[in-house]
Design goal:
The complex is a heterodimer of chains A (247) and B (376). Chain A is an all-alpha fold. Helices cover 76% and strands 0% of the residues of chain A. Chain A has one domain (3-246): MetI-like (MetI-like fold), CATH 1.10.3720. In chain A, α3 crosses α10 (214-243), α5 packs across α6 and α6 packs across α8 (159-189). Chain B has 18 helices and 17 strands. The longest helix of chain B is centred in the middle third of the chain and has 18 residues, at 168-185. Chain B has two domains: 2-239, 3-Layer(aba) Sandwich (Rossmann fold), CATH 3.40.50.300; 251-360, CBS-domain, CATH 3.10.580. A six-stranded mixed beta sheet of chain B has the order 6-7-8-3-9-10, with helices on both faces. Classes of the chains: A mainly alpha (247), B alpha/beta (376). The interface between A and B is medium-sized, with 20 and 25 residues.
């Protein structure tokens, strides 16, 4: 590990710790927001603590992004295999469509089937975040030089070995950058889940808009933005760790 | 060792390889050559089943290649392609160890083998084993490619234009090294190229192809002396006499030169110089120092003044140099003969213009216009 990378990793860890401290100290927020909005009765939403909102948000993003990765990466791989190549245009078009569809509309459509709450939001986020992961995986695998794959096969690797020993290590960086994009989108989009009672950082934002309390909006929006930056920085560390050897 | 029997590959209406049959004996280098699209690479790739034949069969050591599991077949056939085929995410040692790892060797054995092969291809292991392909020059990457193919000591090497992406100077060096390694290891090699000079230099047998059909299968000498048809005749080129010199090594025709030691003194010099026009002057340990011209001595110059000092690296060739290279060196330097020295710059012989002429004339009687067997 280079000194440069060690420093970045340390900074990321420090950022994560600072974030944890910040969201679990309501008095800090109170002290910061009170002078800005002296006329408001509450500057923090009384319904739940900020830490709870953050944890709910993390659960939403964690589960939906986890699903996106678990489904998206194999799907991207499958359409680059001989057996799945014919489905490539369909898969790309479908995931692309998933992303052009507004998440609120997905929520509205999912509600009659899945009802209110957590799971409709997970489904919406999952569909919404799929495209960057699938297209990143396809682009990553297709960026592997053909002679490398040819050599791998010619030396006697089985199709699975070609995938795991040659293609995926070389595609890792582009796959991860697809995941990064997807997760950044997800953290922001997950706030809409509050509209159907999912919880998370969307609760103070939507609640604040409803009662014209800008302090509530900030209570949700600021941690959400910080969370997006933090997640991006963490994935950048993973990206650096897997690609240091590949180019 | 490797036998092709009526091997055919069709793509729809198009026939890429048409009823190809030939046999390569153990330890021979067989070069497949022809214009692009002639089916030479397709043929090579059918031997390790990267392409499946649509007809005929291929036997390796008497066994039909279709009877083996495809991965097992390929692990027994070393495969070399242009340097871009190295794995960019693996070190040099990691690349060389790909097949050993597939075969389940332990770490110590893989590391020892990688070092051994790096030494074989002329790359010091300490300096190279931990480098990544992007840190290598084209020539170095190509050496690693050859080392990788040799890792599990396969009896057969398949090489697909291995030196095609290397500059001409490095290509020649790689060819020379490959010839040296091959003399040592005696692999059965199938080698695809479009470079006829490369084919003549390296091949024991050349298979010339055109439009998927075999035009001639013969030794380089046979090919140069008796082209089977007009296509082969034209493909080999008009300078066949010169090409034949590629097959002759300096050590085959060199003679022992007149020499005198630098410390022989005036009388020794005059005595030595009396025998031939030019006499090589050597250091006491046999290293080439220069030469003296008898004419200069006759014109009254002292022996000291008459010595022409030379840089042995510049004005001599090695015993393994081809006669064509020796000839071009002579022409470049404007000499009628050139000294032959060993690795330590010690004089071991000389090659003269007349011996080159004699080698060229050999077989000249065969080079009449070939029969017009092929109208194309």
């Amino acid at each position: 590990m280079t000194p440069h990378r060690r420093r970045n990793a340390a900074l990321t860890v420090a950022g994560a710790l600072a974030f944890a401290v910040l969201v679990s100290a309501p008095s800090l927020w109170e002290a910061a927001l009170r002078p800005l909005f002296p006329q408001l009765r509450d500057v923090l939403m009384p319904r739940d603590t900020l830490a709870t909102f953050v944890l709910q948000h993390l659960a939403l993003v964690g589960i939906s992004s986890g699903l996106t990765i678990v489904v998206g990466v194999p799907l991207g791989i499958w359409v680059t295999r001989v057996g799945g190549r014919d489905f490539r245009p369909f898969v790309v078009a479908a995931t692309d469509l998933g992303q052009t569809f507004p998440p609120v509309a997905v929520l509205a459509l999912a509600m009659p089937v899945l009802g209110f709450g957590f799971w409709p939001t997970i489904v919406a986020l999952f569909i919404y975040g799929l495209f960057p992961v699938v297209s990143g995986t396809i682009a990553g695998i297709e960026s592997v030089p053909a002679p490398v794959v040819d050599a791998a096969r010619g030396m006697g690797m089985s199709p699975t070995q070609v995938l795991f020993r040659a293609e995926l290590p070389l595609a890792a960086r582009m796959i991860l950058s697809g995941i990064r994009t997807s997760m950044a989108i997800n953290i922001g989009t997950a706030t809409v889940g509050a509209a159907i009672g999912t919880g998370g950082l969307g609760v103070p934002i939507i609640g604040g808009l409803a009662v014209q309390n800008m302090a509530y909006v900030l209570e949700g929006a600021l941690p959400a933005a910080l969370l997006a930056v933090l997640a991006d920085a963490m994935l950048a560390q993973v990206e650096a760790a897997v690609t240091v050897r590949s180019d | 060792m490797i036998r092709l029997e009526g091997v055919t590959r069709r793509y729809g209406e198009k026939t890429a390889v048409d009823e190809l049959s030939f046999e390569v004996a153990e330890g021979e280098v067989c070069v497949l050559i022809g214009p692009s699209g002639c089916g030479k690479t397709t043929t090579l790739r059918m031997i390790n089943r990267l392409i499946e034949p649509t007809g005929g069969r291929i036997l390796i050591e008497g066994r039909d290649i279709m009877s083996l599991p495809v991965e097992e077949l390929r692990r027994g056939l070393g495969y070399v392609i242009q340097s871009i085929g190295l794995f960019p995410h693996l070190t040099v040692a990691g690349n060389i160890s790909v097949v050993p790892r597939l075969l389940g060797w332990d770490k110590a054995r893989m590391a020892a083998r990688a070092d051994e092969l790096l030494r074989l291809v002329g790359l010091p292991p300490e300096a190279y084993r931990d480098k990544y392909p992007r840190q290598l020059s084209g020539g170095e990457a190509q050496r690693v490619g050859v080392a990788r193919a040799l890792a599990a000591d396969p009896p057969v090497l398949l090489m697909d234009e291995p030196f095609g992406a290397v500059d001409p100077l490095n290509r020649e060096r790689l060819q020379t090294e490959f010839a040296r390694i091959q003399r040592e290891l005696r692999k059965t090699v199938i080698f695809v190229t479009h470079d006829i000079d490369e084919a003549i230099r390296l091949a024991d047998k050349i298979a010339i192809m055109r439009d998927g059909k075999l035009q001639q299968f013969a030794s380089p000498e046979e090919l140069l002396n008796h082209p089977a048809n007009k296509f082969v005749h034209d493909f080999v080129g008009a300078d066949r006499a010169l090409k034949r010199l590629v097959r002759v090594k300096v050590s085959d025709v060199m003679r022992s030169p007149a020499t005198v030691f630098a410390n022989a003194g005036e009388i020794g010099f005059r005595e030595a110089a009396g025998r031939r026009r030019f006499t090589y002057v050597l250091e006491p340990d046999g290293r080439l120092l220069g030469w003296i011209d008898t004419h200069d001595l006759d014109q009254g110059l002292s022996a000291e003044e008459a010595i022409t000092l030379v840089d042995a690296g510049e004005a001599s060739v090695g015993p393994d140099t081809s006669l064509r290279d020796a000839l071009s060196r002579m022409l470049g330097l404007g000499f009628r003969s050139i000294a032959v020295t060993d690795d330590g710059c010690r004089l071991i012989g000389e090659v003269t213009f007349s011996s080159v002429e004699a080698a060229m004339a050999e077989g000249d009687e065969h080079i009449a216009a070939p029969a017009e067997a092929d109208a194309g």
